[in-house]
Amino acid sequence: GLFRKLCHCGGSENCICVLREKFSGRVAISYEDGNSSNLGSPLAPTNRRTDIAVGGKYQISDNVALSAGVRYTMFADTNVQAGPAGVVAFFPNNSSLGIGMKLGISF
């Protein structure tokens, strides 16, 4: 249908759509599996995560473009272990929200 004409999907997690001549959008859903022990390190205290991202780009003129995007990440419960001391921290029900905007000027 119309979606297939406007969008190109690379695998099951990433689609780029050209909605108008000057506007394009992107939708992405990704999943990163962790280890079965639910253990993370102090430098990387996450185990599994699911991301949902939406973004777009508007070409204002031949040399000016405005881009913006939002990414919401849900992290699985993780125990953090440091050395032989055992579990030193527990991170339950964590999530993050990232928002970005860029004004690009080429010359």
What can you tell me about this protein's structure?
This protein has 107 residues and is mainly beta. Helix content is 5%, strand content 61%. The chain has a 6-stranded antiparallel beta sheet. The protein has a 3-stranded mixed beta sheet with strand order 4-7-8, with no helix packed on it.
What is the compact description of this entry?
This protein has 107 residues and is mainly beta. The protein has one helix at residues 2-6, and strands at residues 7-9, 14-18, 23-32, 39-40, 49-61, 64-75, 78-81, 87-91, 95-105.
Number of strands: 9
Please tally the helical runs, counting DSSP H or I stretches of 4 or more residues: 1
Largest sheet features: 6 strands, antiparallel
Q: Uncertain regions: pLDDT < 50 for 5+ in a row? A: none
Question: Helicity level, as a percent range?
Answer: under 10%
Q: Which structural category do the helix and sheet elements fall into?
A: mainly beta
Order of helices and strands: HEEEEEEEEE
Describe the secondary structure blueprint for this structure:
Layout lengths: L1 H5 E3 L4 E5 L4 E10 L6 E2 L8 E13 L2 E12 L2 E4 L5 E5 L3 E11 L2
Parallel strand pairs: 4-7
Antiparallel strand pairs: 1-2, 2-3, 3-5, 5-6, 6-9, 7-8
Throw out a few tags for this protein.
six-stranded antiparallel beta sheet; mainly beta; 107 residues; 1 helix; single chain; three-stranded mixed beta sheet
